[in-house]
Amino acid sequence: MRRFPNRTPVPARSALASAFAVAALLASPVASLADGAPADGETASALSYWPAESLAKQRAYESFLDDVPNPERIAKWHVRYAEEPHVAGEPGDRRMIEKLSADLEALGLEVETHRFTAYLPRPVSASLEIVAAGAVTDIDVLRFGDPATELPLALPIKEQELEGDPDTAHPDLFHGWNAYAATGEVTAGVVYVNRGTKEDFERLAELGVDLDGKIALARYGGNFRGYKAKFAQEAGAAGLVIFTDPGDSGYARGDTYPAGGWANGSYIQRGSILTLPYPGDPLTPFEPAHADAERLDPAKVALPEIPVQPIGWGAAFEILRRMDGEPLPEDLRAGWQGGLPLPYRLGGGALRLRLAVEQERRLVETANVLGYLKGETHPDQWVLVGSHHDAWSFGAGDPNAGTMLVQEAARSFAEAAAKGHRPARTMVFAHWGAEEYGIIGSVEWAEARRKDLEKAVAYINLDGAAMGTRFRSSSAPMLKQLVTEVAREIPQAEPDSHGVAGSDSVYDQWVGDGDAPRFGNLGGGSDHVGFYCHLGIPSVGLNAGGSPGVSYHSNYETLGWYRHVVGDDYAGARMLTRMVNRMSARLANGALLPLDPVRYGEDLRGHLADLSERAGDLGHAVEFSRLRAAADVYKEHATETWDALRSAVADGRLQGDALDRANELLLGFEREWLHDPGLPERPWYRNLYAATDPDSGYASWMLPALRWAVERGQLDRVIPTEDIYLAAVDRLELRLTALDELVANAGGAAGAEGSK
């Protein structure tokens, strides 16, 4: 994507003009569309969610929603929400909540400010010093400083202020910190632990490397930072330092900020290190964290017990150049050597660091902010679109590159409603609080609104979504077909010199030279977890990336960085908003819900194959033959049922109460994977189909109860656990059979009517 950092975005057609034009379209019949033929760019399969006579109205509605997203307006949302730091619980966070509430209310939506009280940390002070060292690697690169610097040497723990980006000097910016790190001070030797993964620590144990009382030095990547701390603590380390390696996201990738977009030497990635077996408030698992909630004793909760400090690669170089202990074994060099211009070593030798961290943990009130657009015919069925609103600094990327999309989508639907065209189902536009500390706000709301969410249709997550123009998606199986259909219809955002989108679709770019789009699996790391993994609501994450740089969780996550690196035309943001609008419109208005039950069969087979391969890697021979056979039978049955169901809707045979019943059956498919006792060792996670990886955090475990048996070597649990999965597939089959009966009865009624 070409960048135009000094160009004012080209305004789209005014919303008012669009409103008048499309209002006329909505008010008048469109004869050329009523015959059921696809409109330009529209996929034929998308037509089968409505009777033929309803298609013109839906197309007009979608056309209106396409026209509303405006780069200038999106840019204004972005400036408004990323103008100051807004860490959860801080004054900027309270102002952010007020802005979001006022903005949703101004759009004409019913606003809920859902306040909750969570156990959150706050940084007080920190320092990291080199207090002793032996030999120093003398690298002739002046920017790394003089190797003869006298000790103790204080290392930087906050980003440099940049003259070209005045936001980096904002007085409310914190030093680099990892939330929930223990308060403490330790002076000790150093052991390099690579990525700090479970496998890395196991390899160190095999080599006889002793971490007891040492400070572990890990580089970011490979797993959630919290597991680096957890595994270091379990290995006996007294502290942990985590650094950003330039080989991953620094000068090895390109020019660093501010010349380019990549991590300069003082860039520091902040983030939580909470690794409890449940997300949300640490003290109120399963229950909403209201002000008077009954809470666990913090001393009895498995919070981190060692001090942890993140640093940039400039500070890491000063440590690594003074490490003169054991070199990396030959078999580790390829995977453990990072991007700094010196040999990485396991041991620090004479090197000693002094690490001091002070944080306070306290109960803090913050809030979720939600805007409701009540549905006309099925108000109790909710379509949710959301992103969190808290950030580690300005959050121009994470989360506000998603926050601005939620607001623009809300504006799109609100403008349609103002013209008298409300969705059939209720739209909910959500901004979640305290996500960065452990997916807290969305989980607390989901726990509080569990009953209301029993008929929720889907959740669309937009966490930091618009970071470029290369579309990607992670999705529950039931929403993959909808994402694919809509991606075929929305133009790809590759602007020419005038900011006009190209003719290729999002789908064309997404697939590239492949045969089909590649979906990621939903795992951990964002606000879908409460809806998908706990309540069984089909969920999907949408994003567009590809921009050459990183500002993630740093003080450089400013509007200046975003416009310099991602661009100021907001073409990707408009593209994604159009994707959200069309997907939401079909979920909210579909006479038949566009929740495809077929994909379970195909995906289940793939996950079983992957799990068998993983078992083989661990030395186990597990085939899951019964579940594979059940998946095959299910897929064949689901394909026949889904085709017949869509045909019955499209030709008008299935209507009224029977159609409502069909949608109720579809809403229950994802819930059939819920297992009330929860997963082994993690009862909060109830979805047998997907959960977060308990050893890495961000990744997903598909078929997690079976995966647990394989990973933990509990092979005696494989057969009884497979029985639980077979029972779930049987329940899905019963829903298919009930749908078959509805279609058969609808067909019979039509035939009987026709014979009179």
Model description:
The protein has 756 residues and is α/β, with parallel strands linked by helices. It contains 21 helices and 17 strands. The chain has helices at 15-27, 55-67, 71-81, 91-106, 198-206, 225-234, 246-249, 313-320, 333-336, 400-418, 440-448, 477-489, 506-511, 528-534, 559-565, 571-589, 599-617, 625-650, 656-667, 704-711, 718-755, and strands at 110-132, 153-154, 178-179, 184-188, 190-192, 215-219, 239-243, 271-272, 308-311, 352-373, 378-388, 425-432, 458-461, 468-475, 539-546, 690-692, 700-702. Strands 1, 2, 4, 10, 11, 12, 13, 14 and 15 form a 9-stranded mixed sheet that branches. It has a 4-stranded parallel sheet with strand order 5-6-7-9. Strands 3-8 form a two-stranded parallel sheet. Helix 5 (198-206) links the parallel strand 5 (190-192) and strand 6 (215-219). Helix 2 (55-67) runs antiparallel to helix 16 (571-589) and helix 11 crosses helix 14 (528-534). The longest helix has 38 residues, at 718-755. The model is unreliable at 1-36, 140-144 and 749-756 (pLDDT under 50).
